[in-house]
Amino acid sequence: MRILFLLIALAGVALGIVYPAVIDTMTGSEIGRFRVYERSGFTKATAVLAEADAPVRAILEMTTSGVYTMPSAAAHLTLTATIGGKTVLAERVVFVSQQPPKDVPSEQNLVAAAGTIDPVTPGPHLFVAALGDVDSLPMKSVDLVLRRNAQLPDERAQPIGYMLIAIGVIGFILSLSRRGGGKPDEPPKPRWGREAAGGQ
Question: What's the rounded Cα separation, in Å, for the pair 15 and 9?
Answer without folding.
Answer: 10
